[in-house]
Amino acid sequence: MRPFYNITCYMFSIFCDGASLHRKRLEGDSRALPCTLEKMPGYLATFASNMKAFVLLLSAIFFFSAAQAQQEADTIPALKAKDINGKTVKLTDFKGKVTFLRIWKSYDPSIVDLAFLEWLERKYGDKVQYLYLCTDDFTDNWKKMFNYFPAVKGIQLVTADDKDLWDDFLDNYSQIAIIARDGVIFYQNDYQFEEGLQMLLKE
Predict the structure, then answer these.
(1) Torsion sign across C-alpha atoms 45, 49, 50, 52
(2) In what order do the strands lie in the sheet with 80-83?
């Protein structure tokens, strides 16, 4: 949040400089305003200068607020899901351990997907918790793929709560999300997720 604070302070200083320019203009200093404003009447030039600074200040405040809201939104929600045995769980039940979440939206995993998951589980072992989520149902093809790879031990889940709530949550992510022990979600490029995973494991 420090960069947003710095930006806000900087924009405020610009606004204050605008007030200083206005004072100098009233004192007869023709160099007080940029040349692009020289042809404007004094009061209009001052108004334009100060309004520009004011708009920039409001923009900084808006982006600061948006960042705060996004930070709050990037926490694992208490949405319900069912595991392969039909047991209902909540995503928040898995807090407490670094978690790798792989998402399939309206399609089944491929052999390449399962081979990748097998490699991932072998590499990180029980240091990481693995969740494999689908948004429709455990189809025959889904079950067949996982049966081909018995070494893949991650928890298989299917969405089981309000569809709109799940859609709102999943719209923020493509295929992979990394979740910290406290439930904060770190989403990265699907091909660079290991950087986030290794960072959270060191904490």
Answers:
(1) positive
(2) 88-90, 80-83, 155-159, 129-134, 99-104, 176-179, 185-186
The one-letter code for the residue type at 35 is C
> What confidence tens digit (pLDDT) does each residue in 12-52 have?
444 444 445 444 545 555 554 444 445 555 555 565 566 66
Checking if the pLDDT of 70 tops 50, the result is no
Q: Pinpoint the residues of the chain covered by CATH 3.40.30.10.
A: 80-202
How many of the other CB atoms lie within 10 Å of CB of 57? 18
80-202 CATH choice from 3.40.30.10, 1.20.58.100, 1.20.950.20, 3.40.50.2000 = 3.40.30.10
Check: CB of residue 182 under 8 Å from CB of residue 95: yes
Q: What is the pTM of this model?
A: 0.64
- Taking the CB of residue 154, how many other CB atoms lie within 10 A of it? 19
Tell which wins on pLDDT, 54 or 162: 162
